[in-house]
Design a protein that fits this description.
It is built from no helices and 31 strands. The chain is an all-beta fold and about 400 residues long. The radius of gyration is 20 Å and the shape is globular.
């Protein structure tokens, strides 16, 4: 059985606010993986994950509210999905209560031919409408690593990596100097009826297999992603939506990491009002690192980045959550065992106290995927995949905040 560490049910003095860590049982079946969390305006936590079903897969969903789980529902199922350890489905909830989810569905026989598909629920996740294809370019190419977030009271925003210029296959991953066949970053807005009302091309040359993330600040939306220049520098960039239009992308910190292949390790972003935290993995200087940057003006500018961790054991796979007092950072390391770590951050990304060892996993490598977290007023929730007897299983922890 997995061990939830850091003195189970004992106060964590290293964290600014009194807190305890306890197991958070997850209502998933066998062969469950690729979890993701989102939060509703009512304080509920939404969990999605994928389970194997015969020769196909099911996208599952459950809500945690008032200290209990809802009935588990199936958002969608199929035998033509693209299921990947790093490119996982997600959900988001709009202020009007509408739930949205996404996954990836094959568009042709080619290995890397798949599209981003949306599902909508107007009844709290009990039923889900027919799928809506995000990208409508009609090319049998890669489309994935999507981020979903509320654009308005009843509109959804989506950002994704789009391979319509790659020509299919996996050629864009080999390292080319031209943007003619590169992955790009695009975004779109969907209204409450599932109709696409806007679409924009944001960057014509990005890293191919790194997650995107997005946050809504006091001044509008911000997207974070890993860029890729002709010299194979793969630093982290943000792009902001200000005064009705998307701005020119800007580098968060010039790590100057030259990487002639995709690191499959995207950045994270979290906002509270005008405060914005960014976190990412980099291998600059031939040493794996976790880097952080803070903005107090909704991402207009970032303070100089700082390094939280620098060691060969650092795997990255970061996630962030923010509140009025600061942010929480989650990441993965692996040496003799794979471990999950949690750190409390103040403004200017300064760590508060020492990092907390959250859990030691039995699984290793890619099999454990990406741990995710979400914060409410009462607690911080973390979910991850472990591997027991060769089968993936979901585990969770609840960090009580008082």
């Amino acid at each position: 059985m997995i061990r939830v560490l850091a003195a189970l049910l004992l106060p964590l003095a290293a964290i600014a606010a009194p807190a305890v860590i306890e197991p958070w049982p997850i209502p998933a079946g066998t062969a469950a993986a690729q979890p993701s969390l989102s939060r509703g305006a009512d304080g509920a936590v939404n969990l999605s994950w994928i389970e194997r079903s015969g020769n196909g897969h099911q996208l599952k969903f459950a809500r945690f509210a008032n200290a209990r789980w809802s009935e588990t529902r199936t958002i969608a199922e199929g035998d033509n999905w693209f299921v990947n350890w790093a490119d996982f489905p997600s959900t988001t909830q709009l202020p009007d209560g509408t739930l949205w989810a996404h996954n990836l569905i094959k568009s042709a026989k080619g290995t890397y031919a798949y599209d981003v598909v949306l599902y909508r629920s107007d009844d709290g996740g009990k039923t889900w409408a027919a799928p809506i294809r995000v990208n409508d370019d009609g090319t049998p190419t890669e489309h994935g690593f999507a981020s979903l977030w509320p654009w308005s009271e009843n509109e959804l925003a989506v950002a994704w990596l789009d391979g319509r210029n790659t020509g299919g296959g996996h050629d864009a991953h080999a390292g080319h100097g031209s943007s003619d066949n590169a992955m790009m970053l695009r975004t779109a807005v969907f209204d409450r009826n599932g109709r696409k009302t806007a679409e924009s091309e944001l960057d014509i040359r990005t890293c191919e297999c790194c997650q995107t993330d997005a946050a809504m600040t006091a001044k509008g939306s911000v997207i974070i992603y890993r860029d890729r220049d002709p010299q194979e520098i793969r630093d982290v960039y943000t792009v902001r939506h200000v005064d009705g239009r998307w701005q020119t992308p800007k580098v968060v910190a010039a790590d100057r990491w030259r990487m002639p292949a995709c690191p499959v390790n995207g950045p994270a972003l979290a906002a509270h009002g005008s405060s914005l935290w960014a976190a990412w993995y980099t291998g600059s200087g031939n040493t794996p690192k976790i880097r952080l940057a803070y903005s107090g003006d909704s991402g207009t500018t970032f303070a100089p980045a700082r390094t939280l961790r620098s060691a060969q054991s650092v795997q990255g796979r970061v996630d962030l959550a923010a509140d009025a007092g600061g942010a929480w950072l989650l990441w993965t390391e692996e040496s003799a065992t794979q471990t999950l770590w949690l750190s409390r951050l103040g403004t200017n990304s300064r760590p508060i106290g020492n990092p907390i060892l959250l859990a030691t996993l039995k699984g290793r490598g890619r099999g454990t995927g990406f741990a995710r977290m979400q914060q409410t007023a009462q607690a911080l929730y973390v979910v991850w995949t472990d591997v027991l007897d060769g089968r993936p299983v979901l585990r969770g922890a609840r960090i009580s905040l008082k």
